[in-house]
């Protein structure tokens, strides 16, 4: 059996690295990106995947996950990262590795503050991050633009045009990053001002930027907290923030019991200067926090800490499990807590990371990663998009994903593989449309299973009551 060529060392010449990328086209021609699995293939079992992906989740919240995924093909896709990973593993891929987001979709791109307080547009969720072929991120992100266009009932060409825009932006920016000074490429950021220059300064974009600038801990505290017996405490906001509930009373009790050890581990994961900053805060309150579609059923808690009795800090503690990609790509390069995997992957791929980003293990060995809940964070809402918004957002996401992949991988190799022709753009658009059909068929199967009683689904508010 012929062995696959090894990727050149990072210190190899740009010409050698680019040549390696071009040579990988014999492994997976760019036109092969158009290939997609058949929804009714004998080796595909979406409901079996759904059952397997629920292992380790809070049992009482599994029906909530099903309920959220039932809402539309768009929400189903958001929760189906592991199903798509199973499908991608059966398709040809480039063999050119980078640090993957692992679940690149529209809701995982948005604004947040850099440590210098600049407003940065970037990937903001790395639950599934792992080293792997760059095309897996690109395929997942591209498909969601078609799914989103269909959800908004745009004309069929809008989704395809958005994917082509994404592909062209990714290809163009990757070439630019390859040619940049190494440090300049590492430090590159897509700021709010750069984003505005990419497209029209329409009302939607400006509104999201203004929202991000207002989204600080102090502003959040004004509506989310109250004074109880002289202490700042979280206000009940079920089903999203609450102190107790039938579905999670057991979990939050366990988490609170081991909190001193958890915080000590978390503190140790921070750099020394940030440990000093963390030491200025005192823990006031702990609540349950409801995560997004893909994470429903994973444990997630919100810590309210206060400095000088009045300055709030909100830390999200989110359970980290093995990446859904690990079954196909193998374990992370460095073994350890899943929370550590998330943090290290995020720091490698992001342009700038939260100063409080860290990890720890709770009682029972469950891994968690920790980050600020509100730090000038804001994302776009699909329901606000017009066709032109989707196209401009695709360009911004292509730019951002290329920057992340160039930082976490080899821009010269990826650029060599993609080349100058638009073969990649067309094949990616073909794949995205075909896989959007697969996703819709899988969503219909879930609906039928719920209607027949084979799968349970409940409302989020009902589960939290």
Strand order of the largest sheet: 7-8-9-10-12-11
Q: Quick one: biggest sheet? A: 6 strands, antiparallel
Estimated helix fraction: 40-55%
Low-pLDDT runs of 5+ residues are 460-465
Q: Radius of gyration, Cα only, in angstroms?
A: 22 Å
Q: How many H/I helices?
A: 20
End-to-end separation: 59 Å
Secondary structural class: alpha+beta
Indicate how many domains the architecture comprises: 2
Task: Give a brief rundown of this model.
The protein is α+β, with helices and mostly antiparallel strands and 465 residues long.
SSE layout and pairing:
Elements: H1 14-23, H2 46-53, H3 62-70, H4 73-78, H5 81-88, E1 97-100, E2 109-113, E3 119-123, E4 130-133, H6 134-151, H7 156-179, H8 182-187, H9 192-198, H10 203-214, H11 217-224, E5 225-228, E6 231-234, E7 241-242, H12 249-257, H13 259-269, H14 272-278, E8 282-289, E9 300-307, E10 311-320, H15 326-329, H16 338-349, E11 358-361, E12 367-372, E13 378-379, H17 387-408, H18 411-418, H19 423-452, H20 460-464
Question: Could you walk me through the main structural features you see in this protein, from its secondary elements to its overall organization?
Answer:
- The chain contains 20 helices and 13 strands.
- The chain has 465 residues and is an alpha+beta fold.
- The protein has 2 domains: 14-213 and 384-464, no CATH class; 215-372, no CATH class.
- Strands 7-8-9-10-12-11 form a 6-stranded antiparallel beta sheet.
- The longest helix has 30 residues, at 423-452.
- The protein is globular.
- The N and C termini lie far apart (59 Å).
- Mean pLDDT is 89; it is low at 460-465.
């Amino acid at each position: 059996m012929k062995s696959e060529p090894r990727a050149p060392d990072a210190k190899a010449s740009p010409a050698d690295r680019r040549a390696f990328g071009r040579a990988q086209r014999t492994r997976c021609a760019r036109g092969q990106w158009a290939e997609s699995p058949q929804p009714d293939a004998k080796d595909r079992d979406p409901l079996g995947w759904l059952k397997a992906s629920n292992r380790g989740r809070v049992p009482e919240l599994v029906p909530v996950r099903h309920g959220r995924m039932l809402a539309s093909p768009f929400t189903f896709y958001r929760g189906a990262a592991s199903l798509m990973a199973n499908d991608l593993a059966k398709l040809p891929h480039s063999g050119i590795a980078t640090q993957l987001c692992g679940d690149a979709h529209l809701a995982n791109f948005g604004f947040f503050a850099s440590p210098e307080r600049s407003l940065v547009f970037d990937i903001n969720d790395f639950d599934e991050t792992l080293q792997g072929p760059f095309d897996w991120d690109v395929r997942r992100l591209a498909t969601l633009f078609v799914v989103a266009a269909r959800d908004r009932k745009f004309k069929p060409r809008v989704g395809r045009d958005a994917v082509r825009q994404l592909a062209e932006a990714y290809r163009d920016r990757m070439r630019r990053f390859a040619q940049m000074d190494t440090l300049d490429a590492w430090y590159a950021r897509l700021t709010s001002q750069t984003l505005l220059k990419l497209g029209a300064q329409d009302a939607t974009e400006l509104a999201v930027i203004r929202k991000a600038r207002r989204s600080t801990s102090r502003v959040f505290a004004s509506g989310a907290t109250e004074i109880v017996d002289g202490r700042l405490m979280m206000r009940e906001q079920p089903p999203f923030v609450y102190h107790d509930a039938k579905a999670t009373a057991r979990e939050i009790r366990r988490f609170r019991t081991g909190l001193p050890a958890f915080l000590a581990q978390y503190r140790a994961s921070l750099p020394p200067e940030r440990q000093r900053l963390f030491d200025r805060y005192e823990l006031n309150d702990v609540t349950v926090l409801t995560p997004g579609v893909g994470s429903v059923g994973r444990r997630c808690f919100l810590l309210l800490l206060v400095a000088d009795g009045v300055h709030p800090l909100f830390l999200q503690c989110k359970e980290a499990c093995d990446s859904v990609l690990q079954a196909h790509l193998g374990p992370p390069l460095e073994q350890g807590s899943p929370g550590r995997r998330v943090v290290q992957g995020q720091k490698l791929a992001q342009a700038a990371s939260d100063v409080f980003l860290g990890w720890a293990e709770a009682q029972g060995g469950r891994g968690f990663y920790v980050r600020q809940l509100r730090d000038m964070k804001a994302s776009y809402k699909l329901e606000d998009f017009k066709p032109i918004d989707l196209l401009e957002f695709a360009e911004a996401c292509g730019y951002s994903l290329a920057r992340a992949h160039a930082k976490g991988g080899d821009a010269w190799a990826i650029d060599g593989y993609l080349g100058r022709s638009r073969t990649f753009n067309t094949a990616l658009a073909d794949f995205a449309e075909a896989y959007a059909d697969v996703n819709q068929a899988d969503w219909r199967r879930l609906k039928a299973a719920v209607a027949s009683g084979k799968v349970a689904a409940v409302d989020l508010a009902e589960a939290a009551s």
